[in-house]
Amino acid sequence: MPKLVLTYFDFDGSRGEVPRLAMHIGGIPFEDRRIARQDWAALRDSMPFQAVPVLEVDGKVIAQSNTINRYVGKLAGLYPKDDWQAARVDEVMDAVEDLTTRIGATIRMDDEAKKRVREELAAGPIPRFLQQLEARLKAGGGEWFVDNRLTVADLKCYLLTRWLKSGVIDHVPADIVDRNAPLLARHLERVHNHPKIAAYYAARRK
Ligand SMILES: N[C@@H](CCC(=O)N[C@@H](CS)C(=O)NCC(=O)O)C(=O)O
Question: Most buried of 68, 69, 129, 197 (most Cβ within 10 A)?
Answer without folding.
Answer: 69
